[in-house]
Structure formats: structure tokens, C-alpha cells
Amino acid sequence: MYRSLYFIGFATGYVYLIKSFQDQKKVEALERQNLVTQIEKQALENDLVQSQNNYLRSQINPHFLFNTLNFIYNDARKKAPMAADAIMNLAEMMRYALKRPEASEMVPLSEEIEQIEHLINLHKLRTANTINLELEVTGDMFGLRFPPLILLTLVENIFKHGNVSHSTQQALIKITYEKDSLNISTINMINDNKGKQTESHHVGIDNISKRLSNFYGNDYIFRYYKDPLNRYITEIAVTVVNPLARLNR
Questions:
Q1: CA-CA distance, 195 to 176, in Å (whole number)?
Q2: Chain centroid to CA 231
Q3: What is the pLDDT of residue 216?
Q4: What stretch of H or E contains 22?
Q5: Biggest alpha carbon distance in the chain?
């Protein structure tokens, strides 16, 4: 009897181990399949974005475009200096957009800041310099790389949804890099007359969250909120090691 019980127990254990092993292999196979599916989905999305970018770029002959803008700029420089400045800022932003890298690549942060300056200048020209906004950059940005279009999206949101003409509450874009820590913040009064644009505002914010997650995983901080003074505030904090830091000294 004991021998029978022993063999029965042994057989039961063996069957259990075999079944556990088979179940584990099934789980691993499902996990591999899910991973392959996610990779294929991401590849398709990247291909779609790239195809859209290539299509848009193919619609314009950059050489012809910039030659024409340069001609208009030179013609307007003496007759309408403000219009000439607007043309130049717009041309630089278009030039940057046309040479933009793949969606999965980072770009020099200094180039993104330069595009912000062009955008601010365009709005100043458009509003006869009535906007109350300051761009504050602290730290050495040389060699520093960052995901493209995040800064531009934040600044575009300020102009679309914020009150940048408030007499006492200045809008602020602050970029600071110190000891491998990059901090980006924006502050602006909320324009209550643009309540209908709230949905599009959140689309831009959601896109920023997704892009930060794609590049940094969980190693970043992104906050956005309204404070008691009716100001909209965004804050980004990431650790960025600059490989060219030693060359800057």
C-alpha cells in the first residue's frame, strides 16, 4: 500500500510539474507574441508618421521656396522692415521643420530654443510688441539633446490658450540645465475667453506626455495645473547627461 501511495504521489507530482512547465511555456509564448505585436504596431505607426512627413515635404521644393522668401525679404526690408523681419522668422521656422529628423531621434535643445525665439518674434510683430512674455534660459545648452517639438508645443499652447498681454502677470518660459538636471517650466495667465479650446489644449498636453514617456520611460516628471491666481503652469524635469559637457569648460 505504501509503495502504491508512493508511486501515485510521484506520478501526480510528475504530471503537475509537466503541466506547470507547459503552462509556463504557453504564458511565455503569449508574452512573446504580445511583444511582437506591440513592436509591429509601433513600427507601423512610425512608418505612417514618416510617410506623412515625406508626403508633406515632397509637396514643396525647398530651394524654390527659400529663394522666393529671400527675394520677398530683400524687397520688403527697406519698404516694410517689420514685414521683412516676420518673413525671415517664418523662413527660419520652415527651414527647421523641413530638415526635422525622425520622430524617434532627439535634436539639439539649442535649436528648439532658437525656434521658440522665432515664434515669439513673430507674435511680437503680429501684435505690435504688446505681448508680455519672457524667455529665460540658464545653463550651458551646447551639446544637450532633447525630444523635438515638446518645447514648441508648450509655447504654442501659451499663445493659443493663454493671456500673454496681461499688464501685471507676465508669461514666462524658463529653461534651466544644471548638474545633469534639465527643468522646463511655463507660466501664463489663463484666457477665459477661449474656453472652447480646452479640448485641443489637452490634446497637446497628452502628446507631450506620450513623447516624454517614449523617450524617458518613467524617468521624468511632467506636471500641469492651474494655481489660485488663475495661471496655467507646466513643469518638466528630466535627467540629461550631456556627453559634450567637458568640452564646454
A1: 31
A2: 22
A3: 92
A4: helix 2-58
A5: 111
Inter-residue contact 156 to 197 (CB < 8 Å) = no
pTM of the model as a whole: 0.66
Dump pLDDT digits (tens) for 177-235. 998 999 999 999 988 765 445 555 577 888 899 889 988 999 999 999 999 999 999 99
Measure the CA–CA gap between 204 and 193, rounded to whole angstroms: 19
Q: In this structure, how many other beta carbons lie within 10 angstroms of the beta carbon of residue 239?
A: 11
Using an 8 Å Cβ cutoff, are 189 and 231 in contact? yes
Nearest to 182 by CA among 210, 219, 149, 152: 219
Count how many residues are written for the chain: 249
Residues paired with 173 in a beta bridge: 135, 186
Residue type, 66: F
Higher pLDDT, 16 or 24: 24
- Grid coordinates representing 14 are 510528475
The 3-class secondary structure across 185-234, one letter per residue, is: EEEEEECHHHHHHHHHHHHHHHHHHHHHHHHHCCCEEEEEEECCCCEEEE
pLDDT in tens, 100-137: 655 568 889 999 999 899 888 888 887 878 889 999 99
